[in-house]
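Support reply, case 0932

Customer input (verbatim):
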Amino acid sequence: MAQKLALFVAFAIFQAIVFAEDYIVGDEMGWSTGVSYEDWAEGKMFLVGDTITFNYPQGQHNVVKVDGSGFKKCQEEPNNGTLTSGADKITLATPGNKWYICSVGYHCESGQKLKITVYESMAPSPALEPMPWPMPEPAPAPAPWY
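Our regenerated output:
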């Protein structure tokens, strides 16, 4: 039984890795001012295990994870960490709402902010038990009645 459980867990992890999406925030526009990230996120289903990548010219923007209040107020939280590489990849590790802003100048106030909802990854169906081998012989047909 322990072997079956270990195999199931390994399969679930493998599926999450294989089927995880990498979303480029803003697609070809990247992480910049003048882009509606609300429109960009609409219709996308972000799952645990997916990644989001923020592409932007290094030094012109940044990425700061905030809470809902910080998102509304365009206010970064102390000690939350600011990403500045220009190709910042974030793995969505837990379900729930996630908020990101650019804290450079008035970029956030100009709309450079992203809110997404992350859902639990879809678990694969449990494996069916194998059929016993050899298969039992079918019962003989009843004799006809005359």
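We compared this against your earlier run and they match. Two observations from our side: The mean pLDDT is 85. The first strand starts at residue 22 and ends at 24. Please reopen the case if you see a mismatch on your end.
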